[in-house]
Design brief:
alpha+beta
Length: 358
């Protein structure tokens, strides 16, 4: 993509230098037709609905996941490496993310007010709201960008043209508006985030030209839902058997909160079995390796996985009496996946702690 942008810019400069006006890409009827029909099998979330005449371009639904929702304006400029949201709310539960394209000729304000008022009518109250410059210059780049895979709304199965539109969505927008709203229920709080912008050009050639003038809405809903605990604790004998056969073993019974390195209390049964095996094999030295999925920046994920590995080593040494010189923590982030990260199941399989013989 970077090469594509650079080539386009170079051609435009060359054309201008020779006195010619560079031609602009034209809307592609095939992409326009794709925007005028809903994603097969997708549907409106009953708590939100849709703005009249909009089409549901893309949707993902995850039974249990975490989502970082801006609850404050963005800080810094779009090109800054240290740009960030001033406040972020991290929530977990059932996550539904949907991208709609509203009819051309409609303002982002009209689409935004309709969705916000519909939520208010269902007893949602505002947590944070911003518009245009009050959102901060870096807000669009942080909220949804083609080079941030975690931000894109891409289901496992999606048509190539529709995927191209999802990639190009919000690439260049104006008149952005955002609201984070909350509703308390007996099961826990429900959060809905609405982000709207008017597509205006972009770096994707005829795809961006096809989106030009279309208001787009990213609607994210997080409902409270307990995660199903399907992972069984691996007992010490099985640890030994797997290490003898493969030289490594993956553990899924060690739990961390999203974006954190503190071990959750329910991890203790698995830690106890790991310690039991190490106690029964006092000459063994092992690597404790943390792994993540591929969502987020590589450098950050490697650091996070290293901190998690260190936390496991600390638990085994301080709580279970394993000598620290027998345990070497390392973090590989997403660099050694066991499955494709294109699906929720694959991402879950890649988030793990491993014990590897030295």
């Amino acid at each position: 993509m970077l090469k594509k942008i650079a080539l386009t810019t170079a051609l435009a400069m060359c054309a201008t230098a020779h006195g010619a006006t560079p031609s602009l890409a034209q809307a592609n009827p095939a992409y326009v037709a794709e925007m005028n029909r809903d994603q097969p099998g997708a549907g409106d979330h009953p708590l939100v609905g849709r703005y009249g005449g909009s089409k549901l371009l893309s949707q993902t639904v995850k039974a249990f996941d975490e989502l970082r929702l801006p609850s404050g304006a963005a800080e810094g400029q779009p090109w800054d490496n240290n740009k960030k949201f001033s406040q972020v709310l991290t929530v977990e539960g059932k996550v539904t993310r949907s991208i709609y394209v509203a009819p051309t000729g409609r303002s982002t304000l009209e689409v935004f007010v309709n969705l916000r008022d519909a939520l208010a009518a269902r007893d949602f109250t505002p947590v944070f709201e911003c518009a245009r410059e009050t959102c901060g210059a870096a807000f669009p780049a942080l909220k949804y960008a083609w080079d941030n895979k975690a931000a894109l709304v891409l289901p496992e199965k999606i048509d190539a043209r529709r995927k191209a539109l999802v990639d190009a969505m919000f690439d260049r927008t104006k008149d952005i508006r955002y609201a984070l709203m909350k509703k308390d229920t007996q099961q826990g709080p429900v959060y809905v985030a609405v982000y709207i912008g008017l597509n205006e050009g972009g770096t994707f050639g005829d795809i961006s030209a096809s989106l030009n003038g279309w208001p787009a809405a990213l609607v994210e809903v997080v409902e409270p839902r307990a995660m199903e605990r399907r992972i069984e604790t691996i007992a010490a004998p099985e640890i030994g058997k797997t290490l003898s056969a493969q030289g490594r073993i993956a553990f899924y019974g060690i739990f961390f909160d999203f974006d954190r390195a503190e071990i959750r209390p329910e991890s203790e049964p698995q830690l106890a079995e790991m310690a039991r095996y190490l106690t029964e094999n006092p000459a063994l030295r092992v690597f404790i390796i943390g792994h993540t999925d591929n969502r987020g920046q590589l450098t950050y994920n490697v650091g996070l996985s290293e901190r998690r590995a260190q936390a496991v080593v600390a638990a085994l040494t301080t709580r279970h009496g394993i000598a620290s010189q027998r345990l070497t923590p390392r973090g590989l982030g997403p660099l050694s996946p066991l499955a494709s990260n294109r699906s929720e199941e694959g991402q879950a399989k890649n988030r793990r702690v491993e014990m590897v013989e030295q």
